[in-house]
From TrEMBL:
This is Rubredoxin. Rubredoxin is a small nonheme, iron protein lacking acid-labile sulfide. Its single Fe, chelated to 4 Cys, functions as an electron acceptor and may also stabilize the conformation of the molecule. Belongs to the rubredoxin family. It comes from Desulfocurvibacter africanus subsp. africanus str. Walvis Bay. Its cofactor is Fe(3+). CDD domains: rubredoxin (cd00730). It comes from the Bacteria.
């Protein structure tokens, strides 16, 4: 099963399609197991036609989550280190830093 950092999401505001390597893009000849980086350069989003450059990983470096969490006001370095490890590993299922902050677990 692919981790979040192995899946890429289209960043076009009206789309949100997620490329999952476990599924590939069989209607367009992309076999299951094909990593995002292995897609042909001319591959585009099957829903909106966006180019590969318009996709970001769901987790890990370069993801929207990564950038948003890093810029939270008041986030201490030690907290970021723990969050960074989890996001980088792709372990983001059930992860809600906003909820943790609201419960007082994050200062």
């Amino acid at each position: 099963m692919a981790k979040a950092n192995e899946m890429f999401q289209c960043q076009m505001h009206y789309c949100g399609y997620v490329y999952n390597p476990d599924e590939g893009d069989p209607k367009r000849g992309i076999k299951a197991g094909t990593k995002f980086g292995e897609l042909p350069d001319d591959w585009t989003c099957p829903f909106c036609g966006a180019e590969k450059k318009d996709f970001k990983p769901l987790a890990g470096p370069g993801s929207v989550l990564w950038e948003n969490v890093r810029n939270w006001p008041g986030l201490k370095d030690k907290q970021w280190e723990e969050i960074e490890k989890r996001i980088a590993s792709g372990d983001v299922q059930g992860y809600s830093p906003v909820a943790q902050r609201a419960k007082g677990k994050m200062v």
